[in-house]
Amino acid sequence: MLTKPASLTTITLWNGREIPRLGMGCWAIGGPFFASDTPLGWGDVDDDESVEAINRAIELGIRFFDTASNYGAGHSEEVLGRAIGNRDDIVIATKFGFATDPETKQATGAFADEAFIRRSVETSLRRLKRDRLDLLQFHLNDFPLEQSDAVFDTLEALRAEGKIDAFGWSTDFPDRAARHVGRQGYVSIQHTMNVFEPVPEMISVIEGKGLMSINRGPLAMGLLTGKFTADKAVGAKDVRGAALDWMVYFKDGRMAPEFAARLDAVRDLLTSGGRTLTQGALAWLWARSPRTLPIPGFRTVAQVAENAGALEKGPLPADVMAGIDSALDRF
């Protein structure tokens, strides 16, 4: 289990290691992949630039990187393996559950049987060039509770065999988050959380059960960077332009008007204390709970530097947090 956070901007992991309370999300650096014609990635990437950005993050103190076996049909793991390899001072979290074809870059289904899990682990170890996976997360968000027991039995076995150090679930459902508390090695929940989605029920479970809250979507898929205007559209290979049920922040590839209004209501508060909008969004997460570890995505050195710069300024103060709550109450 996660132990008590050591300070405002560090966190102590299940293995006793203290790291900054900021990771880097590696979905975008995987490059394009698809479900038929529907894009699931964030557009084209430059692998050399990705490696440079990873190295810069490490130079700035970042010690946690999150990826998944399907990001870029495995390419994200390969890029991390190239940049980091088997360094034991870096924590790499990956996920399993979605199958992809690395040749066609196509999604081929979702699976959770023991044979698939074991194959996925071996593939991730090879791509990442690791002897053991630090944190392995179940990627199927709404997988049936009862059926998940067998999945986590397999994860316990893999931990006993030394293939993984710890495991968790990437899910937005509090009942699923709570299901496997008490299993040796069950340490984390990865879930959507940001200024627009404070998810109090999930945080209540996480804090009550002593888990780590790994925050995906901490910047609302880019809205909280301030780089989007009403008329700016994403590229043709960008998942934010896809007509997916869970794509709430963007509609038809452009910023959803209802979230644009929310952003305008809190922009000044988030940028208080000399923070950029991005840094304010990360600082909100740190102030929201001592268990949070946001994992903003990146593709460039500049993005990494801005994200890491939030650590120097720390969590938002209580009066600013209260002002943000008040500003968003009317929506």
UniProtKB/TrEMBL annotation:
CDD domains: AKR_AKR11C1 (cd19086)
Catalytic class of the enzyme: oxidoreductase
Keywords: Oxidoreductase
Taxonomy, superkingdom: Bacteria
The EC number(s) this enzyme carries: 1.1.1.-
Pfam families (alphabetical): Aldo_ket_red
Chain ranges of the NADP-dependent oxidoreductase domain: 22-328
GO molecular function annotation: oxidoreductase activity
Coiled-coil positions: none
InterPro entries, alphabetized: AKR_Detox_Biosynth, NAD(P)_OxRdtase_dom_sf, NADP_OxRdtase_dom
Name of the protein described by the UniProt record: Aldo/keto reductase
Organism: Rhizobium aouanii
